[in-house]
Every structure is written in structure tokens, then in C-alpha cells.
Design a protein that fits this description.
CATH class: Alpha Beta
Structural class: alpha/beta
Number of strands: 9
Shape: globular
CATH architecture: 3-Layer(aba) Sandwich
Protein name: Short chain dehydrogenase/reductase family protein
Distance between the termini: 41 Å
Keywords: Oxidoreductase
Family: Belongs to the short-chain dehydrogenases/reductases (SDR) family.
Pfam families: adh_short
Order of helices and strands: EHEHEHEEEHEHHEHHE
Strand content: 15-25%
CATH topology: Rossmann fold
GO molecular function, one term: oxidoreductase activity
Largest sheet: 7 strands, parallel
């Protein structure tokens, strides 16, 4: 897909981190961008910077997502690109014993379900609604009607202690990539997923610098945290390359996560 001012994109989680970097990258080609996020302050500021539109969207809420797409399409037209970066995580063991009291507890299902709803169901909700919109468009000269890029995690393949919910949600994103790509193949819509490793995003913003350096040192090469711009580069290539379809690609400096 040739990126230019005739193309529109929706980026979930677009106000910061991986989503913001991807929005900036796409906008550098002239692409019109809509940012779906809950952080209105950052989202409005970035949308203004890029000449795009901010939509206050909660991906777990059907009406919120519908309203977001309606606002985005009214402002910049039907998107041909969807980048799914909205997500979160927690760190809770399946069952655990308190070291001091010996009290046994288990992972509360509502906390498990929250991660699934945001990372997995929220991603699918946006894919389904965006794909339906893309199907209303004529194919471009390259043959594409649209391109979708999802965000999983290396935790989908080597989740650490306490990451049962997070790994399950991201594993689900990986698992549905190929079936969705096949579902949409006759409609000329491509679907791919990136599995980022340890990236320097707002999730790590509060960590002390020595902690960040220690995390980066675990990466075989280059021994550092990933930069959001590197994610944006791969996401953009997945959109531009017409033969990129149905793939799940690790972007991690060759790291394989240890149990903890």
C-alpha cells in the first residue's frame, strides 16, 4: 500500500508509546490519523500536532468503539489502516502463599478477565468493525482494500511468572491472526501481528534508570530496550508491503524471557 494523504488510519492506544510512534510515522507520509485512547490530554495534543483527530475510546465498550469509528470517519474518511496498540497487563500468580502468614489466595477471575477484555476482545472488536468499514472501499491499485496490524508480546510465547492473564491475552492475539487473515483474504484486507520484547514505553517510565539498563542488558543484541520508533518502522512496513499477510513477527533483539 502506498502511503499518502489519500490514506486514513486508526491507531488504538495512539496517545503514547508504540501507538504514538506509529501515528507519527504514518503521518510523516501524509496519512491522516485518528487516535483512539482514554488519555484525552495526550491524545488531543498529539492529534493537534499531527493534524489528526482524537477519539476518546474504551476498547472494552461497544458503544465507545462505535462512536470512535463514527467520529474518526467523519473527520478523516474511512480508514484503510488499523493499528491495534491499546493494551495493559498485570502481574498476579495463579495461586500463591503469603510468606509471612501462610495464607493462600488465588488469581481473582475479574482481574484475569479485565486483561482478556482489553487486550484480546478489545483488539478483535476493533478489527471486526474496521474490517467491515474497509470492505466498503474499492481496492487500491496494489490490490489492497486495507491492512491491519495488531500488537501481541513475546509473553505470548514465553510468559513469565505472574503473566497468566497477560500471556493468555497476547497468545490469543497471535492465535487469531492467521484465521482472521484468511477470513478477510477474499476482501483484500491483510492482517499481521507484532510481538514486541522489552520496549521503552510509558509502562516503564517510572522505573529507575538502573532497572531499565538491567532489563536492556538481558537482550542479546542490541543490549538495550526497544525504541517505539522501531515498532513503528515494522508496523509501517507490514502496511506497505503487499505480500506481508497472516504473520506473527517477534521484535525483541533475540530475547527469550526467563521465568522471572
Amino acid at each position: 500500500m502506498e502511503l499518502n494523504s489519500n490514506i486514513s488510519a486508526v491507531i488504538t492506544g495512539g496517545a503514547s508509546g508504540l501507538g504514538a510512534a506509529t501515528a507519527r510515522k504514518l503521518a510523516s507520509y501524509g496519512v491522516k490519523v485518528a487516535l483512539f485512547d482514554l488519555n484525552a490530554e495526550k491524545g488531543e495534543a498529539l492529534a493537534k500536532e499531527l493534524g489528526g483527530v482524537f477519539c476518546n475510546v474504551n476498547v472494552t465498550d461497544e458503544a465507545s468503539v462505535d462512536a470512535g469509528f463514527e467520529k474518526a470517519r467523519a473527520a478523516i474518511g474511512q480508514e484503510r489502516i488499523l493499528i491495534n496498540c491499546a493494551g495493559t497487563g498485570n502481574a498476579i500468580k495463579t495461586a500463591s502463599r503469603d510468606k509471612n502468614t501462610g495464607e493462600i489466595s488465588h488469581f481473582a477471575l475479574d482481574k484475569f478477565n479485565l486483561i482478556i477484555q482489553i487486550n484480546l476482545v478489545g483488539t478483535f472488536r476493533c478489527i471486526a468493525k474496521s474490517a467491515a468499514g474497509m470492505m466498503s472501499l474499492d481496492p487500491l491499485p496494489c490490490g489492497d482494500r486495507g491492512a491491519i496490524v495488531n500488537t501481541a508480546s513475546v509473553a505470548a510465547e514465553d510468559g513469565q511468572i505472574g503473566q497468566a492473564a497477560y500471556s493468555a491475552s497476547k497468545g490469543g492475539v497471535v492465535g487469531m491472526t492467521l484465521p482472521i487473515a484468511r477470513d478477510l483474504s477474499r476482501e483484500n484486507i491483510r492482517v499481521n501481528t507484532i510481538l514486541p520484547g522489552i520496549f521503552n514505553t510509558p509502562l516503564l517510565a517510572a522505573a529507575p534508570e538502573p532497572v531499565k539498563q538491567a532489563l536492556g542488558a538481558q537482550v542479546p543484541f542490541p543490549p538495550r530496550l526497544g525504541n517505539p520508533e522501531e515498532y513503528a518502522s515494522l508496523a509501517t512496513e507490514m502496511v506497505r508491503n503487499n505480500y506481508f499477510n497472516g504473520e506473527d513477527v517477534r521484535l525483541d533483539g533475540a530475547i527469550r524471557m526467563a521465568p522471572r
